[in-house]
Sequence to fold (367 residues):
Amino acid sequence: MDKKEAISQRLEELTEELAKTKDNKATNKALAKLRSKVAQAKKDLIEAGKRQHGKGFFIKKTGDSTISLLGFPSAGKSSLLNVLTNSKSKTAAYAFTTTTIIPGTMIYNGAHIQVLDMPGIIEDAHLGKGGGKGVIAQMRVSDLVVFVIDSTSAWQLDSLMDELKGLNIHINKARPNIQITQKNDANGIMLDVNKSGLDADSIKEILNAFGIFKAVVKIWDNVNEDDFIAIISKKAYYMRGIIALNKIDISNPSSDMISELSKRYNMEVFPISATTGQGIASLRKGIFDNLDIMRIFLKPKVGGNAEPIIIRKNATVGELASKLHTSILDELKCAYVVGPSVKFKNQRVGIKHKLKDEDTVTFIKER
Ligand SMILES: Nc1nc2c(ncn2[C@@H]2O[C@H](COP(=O)(O)OP(=O)(O)OP(=O)(O)O)[C@@H](O)[C@H]2O)c(=O)[nH]1
Ligand SMILES: [Mg+2]
Fold:
């Protein structure tokens, strides 16, 4: 039995004991002790998992954004990489054709989007089956997950989503708002705001189990014990996702089924065929729209080039200037903007003005 299995077993025993103790109407003190032991075991489990990462087929992030193609074997991930990018990844009618992560680049709206073709995920990927751990680790650092699903067996997505939930990866969910400010002069744990489903004692025990004894705590959202532990152990991931419903050339899914899928998983669904090319143009647009990037054009054009600058959505004029060159920011007086972020053409704006996709900016230097 390896370390992780041993901790899992201990966690199971503790959880059982906790359930029994609750039935016994035991003292609060005994319950508190048990709860903090459970919290500690959960933390150990997360730590043990951390050390097992890094088998080393990590691909370095390049370009403006990175997306990963995730799905079961033979769903069509490699076929999709081949139509979206300039790369060639081997495709075949049998499962586990792709055994390492294959990168490609998709250029859309002037943005260079790195696309990662992943080996097919199978159940219990988190236990290391089918190289699942490396795939998950790489996926977590990408900016968007495209779930590639075979439309003839779309509901398989259930087990993939369960797998991710078990790994504390949440798709299209806002990160719960929890503030923990450690203060040496605080009088223990001061619970200023508590909108969670947890009572003050449980919160204290969990924080203590993580070595936090003096802090001001504000919990603005309704979280349960598991969410709370995941967040304070910094092991919860919140990611964006969309669904590429593939092979529609052989299944022809109904619009009811598509909207049902979208509702169930809270993701936009793009019906496509990687072999006939149906729906691929909409998927490209969907990928760009779901990334946190926008296009800004410069006037005068840099080197006669009409290529946009790709920058984080809602970036300011100042952030744009420093992305280009720090010296531009130093000399910047104001800017003139044409486009969606201003009320009229060539509106004069300051450094803190927030830009929008497809704005055109003229920098004015200080004399
Ligand atoms: N009819 C049809 N077949 C497709 C489509 N996309 C992929 N296929 C076929 O499905 C099979 C699997 O495709 P791959 O692209 O290798 O699938 P994968 O998801 O990369 O599979 P692994 O690498 O094994 O995980 C191949 O025979 C493809 O030709 C599609 O849109 N329509
Ligand atoms: Mg493949």
The pocket of guanosine-5'-triphosphate (ligand 1) is lined by residues 71, 73-79, 91-93, 95-98, 119-120, 246-247, 249-250, 273-275 (CB under 6 Å). The longest helix spans residues 28-51. Residues 51-56 have pLDDT under 50 and may be disordered.
